[in-house]
């Protein structure tokens, strides 16, 4: 059975539950990631000759499993597993699995480590055969864990991780995908943390490149080394040490230079110069530009990057927005960098993206190639493009894609991006603060005083909706009528605004045209998706689909192609990628499996059956629609009967009601009460109610029984239908019924959003100006008079 990403993620996160509470997330992440690492390298490399990682005899995950339940399990893991692995492969030190302060002592530690190991024993987590060639399932899982660890660690300890979305932006704007890379192409991160940013750059290259990284924190550098191995980059050179005071990568006594350099250094490092005399820096990183302030290390890291780039090198660095406008020595450095032509671009990011701080950051893009001829800087203000994700903000797929597209094409987009000349920058005294060059503020929704005084919707507000009128020119006349010069009135009742828009022939034609437009893409994509075979590469699949979808919706009115793109990427993340990994591993197989869960006593409980690729509802919908219709009808009848019983109980539940003598209304109590009042002529009405309830209850029970039998029969029929499916049937069920139908619904929802948006704005304008101020004043006076007269009748004198 292929490994589903979602299943891997949940399994790994449940392993954290074994440790959560005993220690901080910044600590327990080490134990979980080490277990992940040992399981992966054991599955992948144990017994493999010339493997990049040597698994010593007795130091595999299988040997760790043999230690479960032993009273000295923690000590044995250290000695028999961790020690040999570290020594044989020259790895960094790993966490102490016998640390009583973190893992508990005695039975508590034994149980905790035993349970932790058991989670990784899940047969589904077999990494030896669950990785589609070219697709990094483990790397993605590692990234998933790192995001959660960073979130839980909070502000002070989340610096070991650069959000994957930002890493992807940097990797894609460097231009490495377009370069002729070879194994001699080098990429370097001087503050590599856990290595996620560096690995994203490597992933973007067409060929294998050589990676270098330095990290100050010893534990984090160990994570980076493991991360490189999990991402199948075991040859990457990761070293530990302070990059500014002791840069480890050198050619002789000079700094080694690289083709690509990326970094997410600590923001505004106040101790950057500790142990270093910047005026006597042996590597001359500051001499050509100026020395950064002693309490503000941002430019120290940026200048290290500049010095570490080859003459044609390209780099990108994440820095706080302050570097764009702060004065004094930083202004001098900024001026020197600009005049040398090193700064190619600046991308302003949303606030609260990073785990170490909530302040907004930017990406400064450095390009030494042709720097002497550079006369402008491309700027993007992407600060408004994000989604809320718990306590942090997060770039969505569409935000990433828009930044990358606009930057790589140098496309000037109003309120978002522009190319700014050195001449204009010099006029602003080399201040690079983005609001000086890009007005990203949304136009204020102004109140019209004359409209409030005399009524009428300002024509200017209606003109502002021109993008709708360009598509449906007659719709404006259908909604509005002339009031007086410069002002309009509604031509329809306020309650009819939505139907007027939605049913207007021009809007109907537009909707039909967009639906047909999607159908064309759907037909083309269906043919491509049905050609997938075992061994396909899921990441290539989604890349192809996404490119095609964006191109298909390029330039379409009223619809943002990036909104459409987001629907595809959301569905990919939720469902489609797991399906594609299943197909990549097994082909178009739709086989059922039993759902076995453990009860509280550890016994297996059969919870029915499932099929991941073709879930039951799709089989039922296509092959058993009549049976499902009958079930739905029974369910509707049952719902109606249940509602009648509830209504009767509410009506007769009071002190005078027929159920007043019952402790609880159920069949036994009702039958007993009927027996008690049998022959009592004064209880005739009560008997009638009780009999009515009993009839309804019997009918309800009968319907429940019939419904359960029908559902059970349908479940059995559906389950036994799977072996009858041929490959073409499976393709139809998955591609048409599951994937493309879901995307169809999501993308067609954009049409509803368009009509709702226009409806809301028209209604808002109508309500804003429907009651002129004099009329409102008269109404207030009228109501005040009524109140006063009422008070007088009550004897109150004003």
UniProtKB/TrEMBL annotation:
Signal peptide segment: none
Keyword terms: Methyltransferase, Restriction system, S-adenosyl-L-methionine, Transferase
GO biological process, one term: methylation
Ranges for domain N6 adenine-specific DNA methyltransferase N-terminal: 10-120
EC class (word): transferase
InterPro entries for the chain: D12N6_MeTrfase_N (IPR022749), DNA_Adenine_Mtase (IPR051537), DNA_methylase_A-5 (IPR003356), DNA_methylase_N6_adenine_CS (IPR002052), Restrct_endonuc_T1M (IPR004546), SAM-dependent_MTases_sf (IPR029063), T1MK-like_N_sf (IPR038333)
DNA methylase adenine-specific domain location: 135-445
Lineage: superkingdom: Archaea
Pfam families, per database record: HsdM_N, N6_Mtase
GO molecular function: DNA binding; N-methyltransferase activity; site-specific DNA-methyltransferase (adenine-specific) activity
UniProt key word Lipoprotein: no
Keyword Signal set for record: no
UniProt catalytic activity: a 2'-deoxyadenosine in DNA + S-adenosyl-L-methionine = an N(6)-methyl-2'-deoxyadenosine in DNA + S-adenosyl-L-homocysteine + H(+)
PROSITE patterns per the UniProt record, alphabetical: N6_MTASE
EC number: 2.1.1.72
PANTHER family: SLR6095 PROTEIN, TYPE I RESTRICTION ENZYME MJAVIII METHYLASE SUBUNIT
Protein name as annotated: site-specific DNA-methyltransferase (adenine-specific)
Organism listed in the record: Methanosarcina vacuolata Z-761
